[in-house]
Amino acid sequence: MAAATPLFTIPIPACGPQPGGTITATEPAPAVYLLTITSPADNRLTTASCNAFLDALDRIEFSGRYKPGVLVTTSGIAKFYSNGLDLEHALTVRDFIPRALYRLFHRFLTFPMPTIALLNGHAFAGGLMLAMHHDYRVMNPARGFACINELDFGVPLKPAMSSIFRLKLPAATYRRLVLEAHRFGGEEALGAGLVDRLGGLEAVLALVGERKLTGKAKTGIYGLLKTEMYRESVALLSEEGHYDGEAREQALAEAEERRKEEGERRVQELLEKAKL
């Protein structure tokens, strides 16, 4: 394979404990634009890394230098595609989720070219969510797992985070991913419909060639088709959708607390009667 043509580099500033890094754009084949994120130690998603991705996507689409083609993302860190959110950052930075993370998810979901996530290593939680907002996924068959592990540390999925899996995956895979926090290796991920192919960049380029993906964006409606196809997620990824979802989530949490209190009260009454 010929060497990839270098295009540009976007810096990722340091963000809290995350040291920053770069997003480097190359062209490994004509009209195939590869964005490689390298943000040690594990490509955590922060405001800085989300904004760098958004800047890179804007440059590909709007600079006038690059004709419509295919957009691919991968990692320059062998072990991780992305280990998800920096949780402290996500919990303490006001509006990080709707104005950085969801903007990024929305941009990939509706990007007016075919998009492919090349999962060279682990894609956990928010990292897998990012990959799911691409059109296709190619996974390393020998290294890395795909997993939604919110169950393990007691954090419920927000509506926009959950919807993309419901829209794109078989029900049994969605259940196992979310309610069992199962870790899918390459072969299992392929069989479950999480990814479309196994391999590395060669597999990505083969997928592009076989499906003639570089020509799909030429009519200018590719993004509009995706916006309609995934309109549930598109709506939830808006700021209005986010805050509506937050209100529903709060109402559900309060209803759950009332349910538990009422259940405990009823059981206490039954125990008291049993003593009589």
From TrEMBL:
GO terms for cellular component: peroxisome. GO terms for biological process: fatty acid beta-oxidation. Gene3D superfamilies: 2-enoyl-CoA Hydratase, Chain A, domain 1 (3.90.226.10). Residues 243-276 are annotated as: Disordered. It comes from the Eukaryota. GO terms for molecular function: delta(3)-delta(2)-enoyl-CoA isomerase activity. This is ClpP/crotonase.
